[in-house]
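Please review this pair:
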Amino acid sequence: MSPPRRRRLTWWLLSGAVLTFAMLVVGGITRLTQSGLSIVEWAPLMGVFPPVGEAQWQAAFDAYKRFPEYQQLRPDMTLAEYRFIFYWEYAHRLLARAIGVVFLVPFLAFLARGYLRRPLLLRLLLLFGLGALQGLMGWLMVASGLVDRPSVAHERLAAHLLLAFTIFGVCLWTAADLWPGLVVRGGDAWRWTRRTRAWLVVFGVLLVVQVTYGAFVAGLDAGLAFNTWPRMAGGWLPPGAWRLEPPLRNLLDNIATVQWLHRTLPALLLVMALCLLIAAWRPVAGAGGRNRALAVALLVAILVQAGLGIATLLAFVPVWLAAMHQAMALLLFGVWLAWSHTLSRARLAA
């Protein structure tokens, strides 16, 4: 493919990654303001337009009143307060539709002009499939809070978040594959690359677990408990961490256990980031400037993310700080992805 065509496809995919990042931030604020259950219908087409006039707003509010969140948590809510949470969820859904348009229209244009050969076409179709699955998971998440509980299921919230990370990752990885002029030398570098790449894979697995538990913390409102650091209720292990039966259920539903895991895993990630930095700084073939820069970026991202997490906890989860914490998680994932892609290119070159 010619460099101009590669650049057009790259910028298109990067725009999708940026919109996905914005989507994650708005989604985080939607969760933090408890706005996610304000729209109780899934209307992919008609839902583009918000209520107009007092009668439509009152009808939307009356529909919200039929469900547990209003009845159990907000029985005194006013229409003005309802409009506030409605608009956050509306912005989240509208941005999702905008992402669909930004992906679909250029995709059809590129397809018509012969840009998309089979391997790239299959990956882009996978991206569309992930987007459709994300929309469905978003509704399933909302639906879980419209039955007999005043909140969404934290397991579905985690699945929704991980799908957003996956879409972001596929966009960035494909854009990096297409970027003209991005060359990584192989040869002797492969011996160093193989070992470092294995450690990066382990780091990535732990990062996914950490993001999953971040979603559990958000879904269970676990950040509003044990608002001290580094100890929890005066000890290194929280009281009641294994009170649920069967014991494995504590890993999923126990607020104390979920928060303890989410605040403990970063220490392991930090140690791994330091080891990767040391490996990148050794005078070994392949540990060049690009790898060293990415190793530093990974360590800095971990430190910033940990600091934001601690500050969010100690401040009792203010919306702006918690939103920054979630956004930083995606940036950290992006740095890890960039380094993984660089080492993957080195393997192919070798």
